[in-house]
UniProtKB/TrEMBL annotation:
Low complexity bias locations: 621-637
One protein family per Pfam: GGDEF
Lineage top rank: taxon: Bacteria
Species of the source: Paraburkholderia kururiensis
Record's protein name: Phosphodiesterase
Every EAL domain range: 7-257
CDD domains assigned: CBS_pair_GGDEF_EAL, EAL
NCBIfam families: GGDEF
Domain GGDEF residues, every copy: 443-595
Ranges for region Disordered: 596-644
Length: 644
């Protein structure tokens, strides 16, 4: 008789788990950012502890394999309702359902809603979440289900919005009361510009549709503060608490402190990771000359008549089937026609006889960088003849070389206001926007204007390209000392930067930047100049002068919490620029000035004669000059870049 084989443990079926009441509920709090209170809990289900089916993923996979998903969803809801009532939780209960289960609930809702009534819970305290796995075959057929759900007092929510089946189509058609943003978009939103922009787009649509947003998957303070300052209403995630069998009755101290933190978030900027891409259509629009064209069969007399009728027209395009095939320059044509007998000999001949059959053609969608390459190319025909502008290959108008240079320069200057083209740091408009946010929130901060001493002589001696390397090194040093979640770093233009510090140790960070830059900048000099301690050059008056190494100077101004209403963003930037000019005369390279004193000077009142905090007073600065410099630096930097 053969020995008996050991018995194999068989996982219990879903029906048995439900019958034996081996399912248990856990709850994760949902937090209101306005005040930091718990507004509700998401009820989640777990299988028997210590078994493979404890995980909800494994549990529902087993249910799907057995064809018992609907039964498990119903049992999970009943289990969560019973536990929620047992613990006498306040706020709302969020329950997850598939589309089929929601339909079944409304058709046969007595067990769940009866249990609610038995436990003394109103249906208006329940939010039914449509899970992301749910595919709805016919939305029109599902709309009455949602309407019926609302008629009973419950609210309807889209779960994990942005993934799987939770689409914009559902949002528009079902008009949920609550939309829960999937954790993919929330995790590391503080450092991911694209996630930030995606959530901001959701926020705009939520405002339009009247839905309330809940950010899922919040796991750290930085992400929380960005979401809070964006205006997202609620959130949940491990930072507030993991799902627990006994619901948390209060927000943890760390999370409560983060919600009430005095500093405001530094929103992630796309310009920190990628260069700006100015619109080519913007440049094309600025240089487009609306001008009539002539058909291939036109004669030279037709060209002459057109030029005589439109004396400001510099050229005329010849087109066939709306596509340009040639360009006739006014000056060249008129000079040739002025010769004896040319009108009589060539007037009735085809206009292509005096045309440029291979003109420069610029497509309207061409990027600004492509246009800039054209400016630097060996083909300079556009300077004399002008060029043709097309829209998807069809004739749109003409342009001149002068207009091309001006359009590229203006678009680059405009782009530099948003992002510096060299360092990709935020430009003047994001800087002003962040200052306004700081002021509107009455947040205390330090505005520190950064400048490089002796940069112009270095740039003159070593050239623009090496000068650019020094500027990029300065940007890297400043970025390294900043806390990206608290400190905003912008590039005003040229060798001017602005930091809006909220870090408590801001002074140590500023001094570390000066030290790191001053040491590192020496590597950009030739060995002989390093040994000599600098370079020989000329000052602004043309006098021979010896210039030391490029060094960093930082002038700061303190804006106390609640005191921002006294100043505008322009005044703060100007006061910081004034402090920077003083710092250039200090051996330490740093000066902190009094905001009120310096603002008074900028407004035309005499400066109070006492030493500025943090360092001895430097020479009085020309406030108007520094203010103008801060506004024009980006323009000058961009123009220099274009010229190179």
């Amino acid at each position: 008789m053969s020995p008996r084989a050991p018995s194999q443990s068989v996982a219990p079926c879903i029906e048995d788990l439900i019958a034996r009441r081996e399912l248990s509920a856990v709850f994760q709090p949902i937090i209101d950012f306005d005040g930091g209170s718990i507004v509700g809990y998401e009820g989640l289900i777990r299988g028997p502890a210590g078994t493979p089916l404890e995980s909800p993923f494994r549990l529902f996979a087993q249910a799907a394999a057995e064809g018992r998903t609907m039964a498990l969803e119903q049992a999970a809801a009943l289990t969560c309702i019973e536990a929620f009532a047992h613990f006498a939780c306040t706020g709302k209960l969020f329950l997850n359902f598939s589309a089929a289960a929601i339909r079944h609930l409304m058709e046969n809702g007595e067990p769940a809603f009866a249990l609610l009534r038995q436990r003394g819970l109103d249906t208006n305290r329940v939010v039914i979440e449509l899970t992301e796995q749910s595919a709805i075959a016919d939305l029109n057929d599902f709309l009455p289900v949602v309407a019926s759900l609302r008629s009973m007092g419950a609210q309807f929510a889209l779960d994990d919005y942005g993934t799987a089946n939770a689409s914009m189509n559902l949002w528009v058609r079902l008009q949920p009361d609550v939309v829960k943003i999937d954790r993919f978009f929330i995790h590391e939103i503080a450092s991911d510009p694209l996630k930030f922009e995606a959530v901001r787009a959701m926020q705009h649509f939520a405002n339009a549709s009247g839905a309330r947003l809940v950010a899922e998957g919040i796991e750290n303070e930085a992400d929380l503060i960005v979401l809070r300052d964006m205006g997202i209403g609620c959130g949940q995630g491990y930072f507030f608490g993991r799902p627990a069998s006994r619901p948390a009755l209060a927000v943890a101290e760390e999370a409560r402190n983060a919600i009430g933190a005095g500093h405001i978030a530094v929103f992630p900027e796309t310009t920190r990771n990628a260069p700006a891409s100015p619109s080519g259509s913007m440049a094309s629009a600025r240089m487009l000359v609306q001008a009539p064209a002539l058909p291939r069969q036109a004669t030279n007399n037709d060209v002459l008549e057109l030029f005589n009728r439109l004396p400001d027209l510099h050229a005329v395009a010849v087109v066939e089937n709306d596509a340009p095939i040639a360009l006739i320059n006014r000056r060249a044509f008129m000079d040739r026609y002025a010769l004896p007998y040319h009108r009589e000999l060539f007037g009735k001949k085809p206009c292509l006889q005096f045309a440029n059959a291979s003109p420069v053609v610029i497509e309207k969608s061409m990027t600004v960088e492509q246009m800039a390459k054209l400016l630097a190319s060996d083909d300079q025909r556009y300077l004399a003849d002008g060029f043709v502008i097309t829209d998807n290959g069809r004739y749109a108008g003409l342009g001149t070389g002068e207009n091309l240079v001006r359009a590229v320069t203006e678009v680059r200057i405009e782009a530099a206001r948003y992002a510096n083209p060299l360092t990709f740091l935020p430009g003047n408009i994001p800087i002003s926007s962040h200052i306004e946010r700081l002021l509107s929130h009455d947040a205390g901060f330090y505005a520190c204007y950064v400048d490089l001493n002796h940069f112009k002589p270095f740039n003159d001696q070593y050239g623009y390209w090496q000068g650019d390397e020094v500027l990029k090194f300065a940007a890297a040093v400043l970025a390294d000392v900043c806390d990206p979640t608290r400190d905003f770093l912008g590039h005003v233009g040229g060798d001017d930067f602005l930091i809006l510090f909220q870090s408590d140790d801001w002074h140590e960070r500023a001094m570390r930047a000066i030290h790191l830059f001053n040491e590192g900048a020496q590597r950009f000099y030739a060995p002989a100049d390093r040994q000599a301690g600098g370079i020989h050059g000329e000052d602004r008056r043309g006098n021979p002068t010896f210039f030391g190494f490029v060094t960093m100077a930082i002038g700061g101004v303190r804006i106390e919490s609640g005191g921002g209403a006294k100043y505008s963003s322009d005044e703060i930037a100007s006061v910081a620029a004034l402090a920077k000019r003083r710092a250039k005369h200090e051996s330490s390279g740093f000066v902190l000035v009094d905001a009120g004193e310096s603002a008074a000077q900028l407004r035309g009142r005499p400066e109070t004669p006492h030493a500025a905090e943090g360092g001895a007073r430097g020479k009085p600065a020309d406030a108007g000059g520094s203010h103008a410099a801060s506004r024009s630096a980006a323009r000058a930097s961009c123009e220099n870049s274009t010229a190179r």
